[in-house]
Amino acid sequence: MKKTAFITGATSGIGKATAINFALNGIDLVLCGRRQERLDALKEELGKEVKVHTLNFDIREKDSVQKAISSLPKDFAKIDILINNAGNAHGLDTIQEGSVDDWDAMLDINVKGLLYVSKALIPQMVERKSGHIINIGSTAGKEVYPKGNVYCASKHAVDAINQGMRIDLNPYGIRVGAVNPGLVETEFSNVRFKGDENRAENVYKGFQPLKPEDIADIIHFVITRPYHVNIADLIVMPTAQASSTIVNKS
Ligand code: NDP
Ligand code: 8X3
């Protein structure tokens, strides 16, 4: 049966690769982000394969999230798969030097934004007793690294929310699981380092990082398991990476 997926952070990186993968696999799409021109381009490209609707909202603004989701046309109103992906790191500083604005951004986007979207979409899944939610966590949600403090806290929160959602939605047959990547080359480090491209590129130099398509492929695997199989928590790193701080660079 034809399914519809709702992907946050679809304008770049892991979310965009997942949108492309899903479209090629016949899954209709609701794609979210703030960069309208990218949403338009994706709609144009992926609309050749499947039905695509785009929503432009800042995930930090709960009223905008609710309003955008309430505005979904009938054809897109039933969401089978939710990919809670939007998020970023802002800054890489010791706790004594970190910026409060960066902390606000990470907690508001990665944690509260994920909750706002989930709050707007879970009731219909509960009512139907069906749905699949994938929360994009991180190795940073399993392990804290130097200067990672608040980003790691935000991803540890995603880990806890993932577990809590799975417990609470268990009676309704809704599948909940997390995909926790290590180093993936996306716009992530450009955002973290506020547009400093050299610094961002350096993060992925000297080893082969994961590509967003690798994660999209895994997400597609997760959502295509038979109904009785729920991949609850998956960690994936580049082969060169052993932990948040151990990367075998040439
Ligand atoms: P990108 O920077 O490439 O993509 C981030 C996406 O999030 C963009 O589509 C962006 O859209 C969206 N986004 C950011 N802020 C907001 C906001 N305020 N409102 C709405 N949308 C927002 O990074 P990745 O693809 O790497 O990151 C995706 C997820 O994967 C994040 O949760 C990240 O923490 C996680 N992750 C990434 C890893 C990596 O190494 N890259 C590793 C582990 C986890 P727009 O700007 O258009 O709003
Ligand atoms: C992203 C992985 O190690 O760059 O969540 O924080 S890391």
From TrEMBL:
InterPro entries in UniProt: NAD(P)-bd_dom_sf, Sc_DH/Rdtase_CS, SDR_fam
UniProt keyword terms in alphabetical order: Oxidoreductase
Transmembrane segments: none
One Gene Ontology molecular-function label: oxidoreductase activity, acting on the CH-OH group of donors, NAD or NADP as acceptor
Similarity section: Belongs to the short-chain dehydrogenases/reductases (SDR) family.
PANTHER family hit by this protein: ALCOHOL DEHYDROGENASE
Record protein name field: NADP-dependent 3-hydroxy acid dehydrogenase YdfG
Organism: Maribacter orientalis
Organism lineage: Bacteria, Pseudomonadati, Bacteroidota, Flavobacteriia, Flavobacteriales
